[in-house]
Amino acid sequence: MQYLKKSIPNILSLLRILLSFALPLTIHLRGLFVGLVLLIGVTDIADGYIARKYKWVTKLGAKLDSLGDLVFFAIILLIVFFRYEQIITDNYIWFLITLALKLTTAALSRIKYGEFVFIHTIANKLTGFLVFVAIVIIPFDTIAYFINGVFLMAILSAAEELGITILNKTPDVDQKSIFKKRNNVAEH
User: Alpha-carbon distance 108 to 116, whole Å?
Assistant: First the structure.
């Protein structure tokens, strides 16, 4: 029973991955789509909160959390490409800058640490939150101005993550910002 309890954060991350794959099936059912996105957001917040609160943080859990984020954002990106392509075409330079920064960071972390490392900075979390908000308001006319803010935050958070990867000798997925390095980095 204790093992099952300790698995709750990992189960939530796996649930987030499965729910993300269901998103394209609900795209024409606006209420269900938004509800699913909100449920994905809740599982994203809950997995880390529960793991930290009960000291059930594991290396596997950190990887599942990052994989959940990657799957969700990849699927959202595909939905935007095929359903709201205007968002990408109107902002293609900002999109390409963000993509280049993210891919550079992924490649550098793989070369430097021997694994892909995705850092859970405050800026990355804020970017994720803004993406969630954008998903909820996409059909409204005000989205263009909001999307500019999302891309700006995405570029800043991607640049910060690249900076952290360049500066750190060992990976710290829980480093909150480039200005605040944890003193005692525990094994996850």
Answer: 8
